Amino acid sequence: MARNIKLTPSERFAKFMKVIELFAKLVGANIFDPNFRPNLLTAFIYVMFIFFYSFIIYTIYFGVVIEQDYTIIIQCLCIVTVAMQGTTKHLNALFNAKLFRFISSQLLTVYEEYECKNQHYIGHLNNTLVLVKRTIYFLFQINFILTMSGFAVPLFYFVVRNESIDIIPLMVPAVDRNTAFGITVYRLFHATCIIFSAFGNYAYDGLVILCILHIPLMKNILKLKFDELDEMLELYPGNRKKTEPLLRDIFQWHQRYILITEAIQTLFFWVIFVQIFTATLSIIATIVCLFLGVWPVAPVFLVYSFMILYFYCGLGNLVEISNDDLTYIIYDCKWYELTPSEQKMILIMLRVSQNPPAMTIGDMMPLSMNTALQLTKSIYTVAMLLHESVQ
């Protein structure tokens, strides 16, 4: 019987990257290949985007001008936000391919370097990989359940109530949905939009998880380095020859932490802004749909929008906590046992840690759970005002 070979942390990380690379290939954006060029699949994705936005305009025109139904604007606003998220993510991946490759190579180097250290380092590497795996799998479950729920609602209406409703409020020009052929075309096109949207957004969100969840790992490694410095200071207090190599390594690692965090902040700046803005807008629009009693799939979409809002704010909160912990880690070391010149290095790190790179929403507010709660309160206030106006 063949023995199971246990993979090293770097090999497990490389497997995660292979999976993400597979997702990237399927959406025509294999940016991890240095020789990648836009191909036919990339063109197909953008043709789909163009068709979607064109059909949205046609749907609003037909609803408002022909049928005099102004609620169609609110319904279309709900689904166009998801398309905006997908478009932003795809463009971001193509235009920042080099930065994506830089971050992935830096993280792989971290695994290859520290899996050869003691068990404390290896433990943090493995814990990070477990957290990434669980988070990505949890996000997949949520996306799968909500996508299936989106298909289940029209099926329920058809089987139980004998009513034919659309999955999404999107019309196809020159196709009569009152015919058998038209209904088939509508169902296929709507299903294609839902599947591509769920698949594409999930693929990019998985990449966001992979990048951001490694910021706490960088912080934990710095903590272990400071622990080693403290142990050395207990044995050789004030001995610069013994402590300076460790302190220089800590100083360089802190710079590396800042560099990778700034790269991740730059990489996802516009994605985060569009994601939070559109998620908030779609929540308000979906609540209006519920008040008006239109679009039965609205409750499913409302759950998805809230999930995206809190998911991204939760990741930003994780970075915020890591930055705060970093300040305490630097200050809590036995800096008073160092020589004056070495203490200056600690002081430099403390000053830098006072203004660390953080995830923000368009530089207007921090990306954190506190921001998510504030947005939820604002959404509730707006929803109540709209409810009063609807009544």
Shape: elongated
Tally of alpha and pi helices:
12
Spans where pLDDT lies below 50 across 5 or more residues? none
Q: Could you tell me how far the N terminus lies from the C terminus, measured between alpha carbons in angstroms? A: 71 Å
Counted beta strands: 2
From the alpha-carbon coordinates, what is the Rg to the nearest angstrom?
Answer: 25 Å
Strand content: under 5%
Question: Strand order across the biggest sheet?
Answer: 1-2
Instruction: Spell the H/E element sequence.
Output: HHHHHHHHHHHEEH
- Class based on secondary structure composition and strand pairing: mainly alpha
The residue fraction in helices comes out at: over 70%
Mean pLDDT: 88
How does the major sheet shape up? 2 strands, antiparallel
Describe the structure concisely for a colleague.
The protein is an all-alpha fold. It has twelve helices and two strands; from the N terminus they run αααααααααααββα.
Strands, helices and their partners?
Blueprint: H1 9-26, H2 40-66, H3 71-95, H4 97-114, H5 119-160, H6 180-212, H7 215-235, H8 240-267, H9 269-292, H10 298-331, H11 340-353, E1 360-361, E2 365-366, H12 369-390
Antiparallel strand pairs: 1-2
Helix pairs in contact: 1-4, 1-5, 1-6, 2-3, 3-6, 3-9, 4-8, 5-6, 5-7, 5-10, 7-8, 7-10, 8-11, 9-10, 9-12, 10-11, 10-12
